Amino acid sequence: MYPALTLQALEELLKRRFEEGFLSLKDLPQPSAFKDMQKATDRIVHAIRHQEKITIVGDYDVDGVTSTTLMKLFFDEIDYPVEWIIPNRFRDGYGLSAAIIPRIEESDLIVTVDNGISAVGAAALCKAKGIDLIITDHHLLPPQIPDAYAIIDQKQPECTFPYSDVCGAQIAWYLIASLKNALEIKINMIAYLELVAIAIIADMMPLQHINRTMVQAGIKALNAHQRPCIKAFLEHSGKAELNAEDIAYFLAPLINSAGRMDDASHAVAFLASTNIYDARVRLERLIAFNTLRKETEADLTAKALAQVDSEDQVLVAYGEDWHEGVVGIVAARVAHRHEKPCIILSQNKEGILKGSGRSFGNCDLFRLVEESRGYLEKFGGHQAAIGLSLKLDAFEDFRSELQLHYPQSLTDETGSNGEIVGELDFKEITFELTALLKRYEPYGQGNPVPKFIAADVTILQADPMGKNGEHLRFAFTQKGIVMQGVQFKTEERYEAGSVVDLIFTVNENHFRGNTTLQLMVEKIIPAKP
Questions:
Q1: Domain containing residue 492: CATH number
Q2: Residue range(s) defining the domain that contains residue 384
């Protein structure tokens, strides 16, 4: 049973998500709150003043791509040449590793962004070659920390930075701010927030405290200045301006697709475009990657769904040479379909299974898989998402042990799919409601879009729409009030006259100068007799 909601009750609930209230940019902590920030800053300033060779090492996801782009743009702005590299997912693996050291061993100083906290072997190689290494990362600390010149990671126990849930691009932004102060130069830090906002959303940081503030400021700046890459994206999407949902569901997947399907350097080139003509060409390349990603993902999702045992508590599947760039998305799709945690793996020619897992509900997937770490060759991640590899002959034992330990992995916290805030009658769905919801934007991780449930709703109409009829357009009625609704990507069909319960969000639909309210349907449940 869910509580019946009024607007006042809903506002009280939303307020509780923001214990500190709404912060502003003046509330941002100083860069010096990070452990080793001053040490790292002094070393980079020394490198600049002595014309040393600096190399930036990034990562192939959106956070890593934007972090790399931020550092590139900063050094471009101060007219200092640096090298940058994002390891290729397929050839090099993740982050700073022994595999890429030969390509950057002429460096005097290496700075990682969004990676490096686990790079013990690569750090030792750097030290042996006389290369100073500065690690900037935001991930959990492993049992052994690399031996580096400086490590900026807010998860270090000695770090006084007050927020633990920040992404790599935020730390890169803080490093740029610190360098600006040390070099006594004037640069517009708000302009750098434009890319930081994209990373915060894409890396699923909680949209609370300073994260909310930085996203709001970044999106406002994006829409005011419109970098060439954003102008090209808005042209392509037919939108007048960008919001958090556009970033999460459209722009971020485009940026991610380069690293998933080919090489993330294409995404850096797009974000760093200096004119609209370059941006358009580079966007077309990303669109092609993303189209291929969607096709590959759909194919592997169908194969994985056919293979998993739906009776298992934790779904696990593998296939020979399944595309490593999309297994994480496939895991999320299968998890959502079956409402269970899922791990999808690809078998290579050496008999190694490598892949990703996504959680569902209140399962701490990291804790669950860590119980079976003895079967794994590599493992990392967090509560909601993991990466791992294991030998083929360990697969069945690993899968069985996951089922055994599953009950102990459940937490008291509600996962990303437990966002129903209460029962909302149609009479409460007004423009006053949407005005209230807008006050608590942007929505995302940690501040999910409020979902509602409505009971005893009658379906008046349910018509397929879209090129292949993959979406549905509805008319519903409850207690004499009629509401329009849509449901995207569903194969279900419903009879007019059916009485159901709805799980939905509410938005405003702007069309040809008119604004109407509509329900964004997530799930339709047959009403109990």
A1: 2.40.50.460
A2: 305-409
Same domain assignment for residues 247 and 128: yes
Would you give the end-to-end CA distance of the chain in angstroms?
A: 16
Q: Looking at the domain assignment, is residue 289 inside a domain?
A: no
Question: Quick one: DSSP state of residue 428?
Answer: G
- Backbone phi, then psi, for 464, in 5-degree steps? -65, 150
Q: Half-sphere exposure of 25 toward its Cβ, with a 13 Å CA cutoff?
A: 10
Which of residues 381 and 519 earns the better pLDDT score?
519
pTM above 0.70, yes or no: yes
Which residues are bridge partners to 152 per DSSP? 136
Q: State how far the Cα of 329 lies from the Cα of 90, in Å rounded to an integer.
A: 17
367 and 230 within one domain: no
With a CB cutoff of 8 Å and minimum separation 6, the contacts of 388 are 343, 345, 354, 355, 356, 357, 369, 376, 378, 379, 380, 381
pLDDT for res 413: 52
Q: How would residue 496 be classed by pLDDT, with cut points 50, 70 and 90?
A: very high
Asked if residue 437 and residue 397 are part of one domain, the reply reads: no
Domain contains 290: no
* pLDDT-based confidence at residue 509 (cuts at 50, 70, 90): confident
pLDDT of residue 361: 85
Tokens describing residue 296: 């590959």
Confidence at residue 510, expressed as pLDDT on a 0 to 100 scale: 81
Residue 467 has pLDDT above 90, yes or no: no
Structural tokens at position 499: 């009485």
* 177 within some domain: yes
Half-sphere exposure of 467 (CA within 13 A, CB side): 0
Q: Is the peptide bond before 442 cis (omega within 30 degrees of 0)?
A: yes
| pLDDT at position 417 | 41
pLDDT, tens digit (0-9, with 9 covering 90-100), for 59-113? 999 999 999 999 999 999 999 999 999 999 889 988 999 999 999 999 999 999 9
Examine the fold and report which residue of 366, 386, 409 is the final residue of a domain before the chain moves on. Answer: 409
Q: Find out whether 56 and 83 touch, Cβ atoms under 8 Å.
A: yes
Buried b / exposed e over 362-397, threshold 16 CB at 10 Å, is bbbbbebbeebeebbeebbbebbbbbbebeeebbee
Mean confidence (pLDDT) of the chain: 93
The mean pLDDT of 281-288, rounded to a whole number, is 98
Pairing, β 499-511 against β 451-465: antiparallel
Three-class SS of 187-243: CCHHHHHHHHHHHHHHCCCCCCHHHHHHHHHHHHHHHHHCCHHHHHHHHHHCCCCCC
Q: Is residue 293 included in any domain, yes or no?
A: no
Q: Looking at the DSSP assignment, which residues form a beta bridge with residue 56?
A: 84, 111
* Residue 444: strand pairing partners: 447
